[in-house]
Amino acid sequence: NAGVMQNPRHLVRRRGQEARLRCSPMKGHSHVYWYRQLPEEGLKFMVYLQKENIIDESGMPKERFSAEFPKEGPSILRIQQVVRGDSAAYFCASSLPPGTGAGANVLTFGAGSRLTVL
Amino acid sequence: AQSVTQLDSHVSVSEGTPVLLRCNYSSSYSPSLFWYVQHPNKGLQLLLKYTSAATLVKGINGFEAEFKKSETSFHLTKPSAHMSDAAEYFCVVSVSSGYSTLTFGKGTMLLVSP
Questions:
Q1: CA A53: distance to chain centroid?
Q2: Which residue among A42, A106, B39, B98 is buried most deeply as judged by most CB within 10 Å?
Q3: For an interface test with B, which of A26, A109, A113, A116 has the most B Cβ atoms less than 10 Å from its Cβ?
Q4: B107 in contact with A at a CB cutoff of 8 Å?
Q5: Three-state SS annotation for B54-102
Q6: How far is A107 from chain B (nearest CA, A)?
Q7: Share of chain B above pLDDT 90, in %
Q8: For the segment A13-34, what is each residue's pLDDT rounded down to a tens digit?
Q9: Are B47 and B39 in contact (CB under 8 A)?
Q10: Of A47, A55, A49, nearest to A69 (Cα)?
Q11: Residue from B59, B58, B78, B75 nearest B67 by CA
């Protein structure tokens, strides 16, 4: 069981470029969450998705940020026209679908993708 | 609304001495509570969870936490610290409403000296 896989682990972008972060959930998990960790802060919820559907994006900035989880392939967090304030660690987590038992509200986290904007 | 307060940003202990990491929560509903650990440049690992069963929860690596509703606390303890315990620890609250969105505390950095 490979767990939650995120890539790239480290990404450097210049201001104005685009950043794409990928997340493959744990085998058997169909629900994906993205969190952002700013320096000296805890993780902040960004978005919750299931296949082909955004369930909750209440934590996503209104502009430049988008997320998807297509029928095939990994979930993608996309940041357009990056700015220095986007520098952070972005963590993906996955879980079983709600209502499938005690494990459904336990998230398994990936190792994170660290974005640095120059 | 829910929130988590980790009372100490840094805790320093000597190897072999007890560990206490403090956490208070606020939640409008019956919460689930978790402790996660993050080692440098690694992902978050679940240490233990409380989901309305026994109030004393045992986790991995000798850690345990006690849910005290009257004090709205969920402090993490370990009888004897090991050098490998040095990491950042996050207290997390979740209110399930069909799906889980976690609210994280700001973290406590545990430093262990020989």
A1: 14
A2: A42
A3: A109
A4: yes
A5: CCEEECHHHCEEEEECCCCEEEEEECCCCHHHCEEEEEEEECCCCCCCE
A6: 8
A7: 67
A8: 999 999 999 999 998 888 999 9
A9: no
A10: A49
A11: B75
